[in-house]
Amino acid sequence: MPEQVDGELMGGEPDGFERLWTPHRMAYIEDGKDRKTYEGAHDCPLCAKLDMPDRDALVVHRGETCYVVLNLYPYNPGHLMVCPYRHIGWYTEATDAERDEMGVLTQQAMRVLSAVSGTQGFNIGMNQGAIGGAGISEHLHQHVVPRWMGDSNFLPIIGRTKALPELLDDTWSKVSNAWDEVR
Fold first, then answer.
1. How many domains does the chain have?
2. Domain containing 65: what range?
3. Is the separation of the CB atoms in 14 and 8 below 8 Å?
4. Is residue 8 part of a domain?
5. Measured distance CA(69)–CA(74) in Å, rounded
6. Contact 108, 182 (CB under 8 A)
7. pTM confidence score
8. Catalytic annotation present for 143
9. Going residue by residue through the chain (183 aa), what tens digit of pLDDT does each one get?
10. Which of 61, 87, 141, 143 is the catalytic position?
11. CATH number at residue 67
């Protein structure tokens, strides 16, 4: 194992931060250069969910212009995505109706997650474009990630492992059953 080099020893100015060097992440960065693009609705995984039964697709609610789906690779149990039915990649392409319904469904997602899991906080947002961090940049989606005190630990950083205390199907049942009940 090569010795870790301190930034100060290489002429850097001390800034008070410790560094956790993760050179194994370069493989992910390099792979991203050859990232698959979804040319249209025919090969987009978020569009494919529209033709599947809700439970199989992890869809918890279908609205007028948007639907709500559990993230297949959640940061936390209950990690939802609010997506327009249309295959658009940018928030600026959303119609007024899509934009408005995304907001309404995000509010309802927060209410439902609070009711079924005692959520203490949320991370809500969109990653726009592949460089902005969107895993599926060609299909607009807003993340609603429930948070609890102590829900993060060393496992994702050190062990490259995420501990999820609930199965996706169990989360789907709780959220989809509560969707129309919670106000």
1. 1
2. 39-178
3. yes
4. no
5. 11
6. yes
7. 0.78
8. no
9. 445 555 555 566 666 666 666 777 676 667 656 667 777 667 899 999 999 999 999 999 999 999 999 998 888 999 999 999 999 999 999 999 999 999 999 999 999 999 999 999 999 999 998 888 888 999 999 999 999 988 876 666 566 677 777 888 999 999 999 999 998
10. 141
11. 3.30.428.10
Residue 45 domain flag: yes
* Overall residue count recorded for the chain in this entry: 183
Is 175 within 8 Å of 80 (Cβ atoms)? yes
